[in-house]
């Protein structure tokens, strides 16, 4: 009678731990046939657990958003041209196709951060600025999908990238297959293969400490990303309106001065008048440079921050699944000590928690690896654009200065 006791169930049926299938898996209630193609391997890398690298890495460009129609022109939509490097075959996808794929993957992978898509918009969907901004957001999204060893190889994603746009039947078949995928929820955890042998059992206290550290990190990163986004937005707004206006006001004042000087008909003052008029034009042009600059440097930074804010919003649920598994292990150990549970059953719970811990730490490691890559390249781009900008401003001022040489 004593050995038949089980670890208590989580009473909150809406908990992420329950919804993700984490609880059913840890308690040994998940069962299903895992095909070789469904196996996801976690390996021990120099930084700890990592997803096994994709042996055939690829990239995918998103270009040429074009307005298309159907139902004899009654319905309009934007289609994006996708060209995956591993197939070389272009396909066209609408935002709704991206949205469908995102929904499938978010449901399938409870401990993987599926990047959020750029937000939907009801009005102004066909305006050039919105289409351009969405394309850039989708390009970042696609880069993160292709960079993830698990998401990049997922059947649904590969179907999305490779199914010919004109073959509606094949698209629907692949879509139905993805929607009938049984390796979701509790069964997803069955597909994870972790290292075996010495060092393959993770120290639960160490795991808890690492996850708590990451939780504190994501909270701080989220706060600073919000602050930087607000500051960049405000600075961009000032450049587009305020700075442009102020520089052009200075330009206008110089122009007024040159016009006043022109009333003096002396031949020897003509050179000065022209130089001052040129200075006015230089300040006018600098105003335009300020207004155009955020598009080149601040906007890309804000696009990156938006993508990462989506990732950061995913991690509380991922961490909750891991925490739920650790709680079940602690409960099972207590039950063994009280003689309410057989050691074998408790060992099974710990083993399955170990799998969730390996997957969570692998995902955390992947996040940090991609974060360093992205922020390095984006900060380099930002500073290069800033340098180019100030070189252009300096050039305008030097041109104006040289106009006085012959006065």
From TrEMBL:
Q: Which domain of life is it from?
A: Eukaryota
Main localization category: membrane
Q: Which InterPro entries match?
A: AH/BAR_dom_sf, PX_dom, PX_dom_sf, SNX18_PX, Sorting_nexin_WASP-bd-dom
Q: Where is the PX domain?
A: 58-168
Entry's PROSITE patterns? PX
Q: Where in this chain does the entry annotate a coiled-coil region?
A: none
Q: CDD domains given for it?
A: PX_SNX18
Q: One Pfam family from the UniProt entry?
A: PX
Q: Which GO terms describe its cellular component?
A: cytoplasmic vesicle membrane; plasma membrane
The record's subcellular location field reads:
Cytoplasmic vesicle membrane
Q: Tell me, what is an example of a GO biological process annotation in this record?
A: endosomal transport
* Protein family (similarity comment): Belongs to the sorting nexin family.
Q: What is this protein called?
A: Sorting nexin-18
